[in-house]
Amino acid sequence: RKEVEQDPGPFNVPEGATVAFNCTYSNSASQSFFWYRQDCRKEPKLLMSVYSSGNEDGRFTAQLNRASQYISLLIRDSKLSDSATYLCVVNGANAGKSTFGDGTTLTVKP
Amino acid sequence: ETGVTQSPTHLIKTRGQQVTLRCSSQSGHNTVSWYQQALGQGPQFIFQYYREEENGRGNFPPRFSGLQFPNYSSELNVNALELDDSALYLCASSLDRWTEAFFGQGTRLTVV
Predict the structure, then answer these.
(1) pLDDT at residue A96 greater than cutoff 80
(2) Number of CB pairs < 8 Å for A and B?
(3) Which residue of A has its CA nearest to B5?
(4) CA–CA separation, B87 vs B94, rounded Å?
(5) Quick check: B35 and A49 CB within 8 A?
(6) Nearest Cα to Cα of residue A70 among A52, A97, A95
(7) Residue A44: its chain B contacts at CB < 8 A?
């Protein structure tokens, strides 16, 4: 079993749709969590950190469920420019190991 | 404030050769992490350097080694290159070991 697992998708949604991604992790002692987006053949870019209380940034909402060991990302009112691969990242109990999921591909269509 | 920069952007090497990739961290960041990303996969953690010391390592063989310098820039060295080492190599810097990381544009290595 992988340490961090994501549904690879692809998710194909129309503009304006709401879409949610989940990511599960196996190490219950993990310390910090992030979502990144990666465009084709580009470097990952930080989308948002994920906090236990949940956090929102415009159309994006991230949540952490420590009991069930998953994090989620909700995108509301999808735009064409949201098309990308979304990567979740889990930082280990011992600082110094970041584990990425393999990413979920989102395509937003007109 | 300059971001993370990596050099070179592209590289072609022959199997068995050695390669050194370089990374300049973002101003004020003392932590650098290196990743290998194969096509269709997420970045795989190679190792992290914090204040010039290796602070964590992923499942990569010893022929992958690194350095961090007093200015917090970093190098990734790979010896005895294999065909499977062909990938995008990403460097990321962060303010500290647990905080969010910011990536350079990557070095695309092809081993032939």
Answers:
(1) no
(2) 58
(3) A43
(4) 23
(5) no
(6) A52
(7) 43, 90, 103
pLDDT at A51: 85
Distance from CA of B56 to the nearest CA of A (A): 4
- CB-facing half-sphere around the CA of A29: CA atoms within 13 A: 5
Edge-first strand listing for the sheet containing B19-24: B5-7, B19-24, B74-78, B64-68
Residue found under tokens 């987006």: A37
Say if residue B2's pLDDT is above 70: no
Per-residue pLDDT tens over the stretch B19-65: 999 999 999 999 999 999 999 899 999 999 999 999 989 999 999 99
Concatenated DSSP letters of B3-28: --EEE-SEEEE-TT--EEEEEEPPTT
Token pair for A22: 């989940």
Q: Which two tokens stand for residue B11?
A: 């590289």
Q: Measured on CA atoms in the order B53, B56, B62, B64, is the torsion positive or negative?
A: negative
Nearest to B62, CA basis, from B52, B47, B72? B47
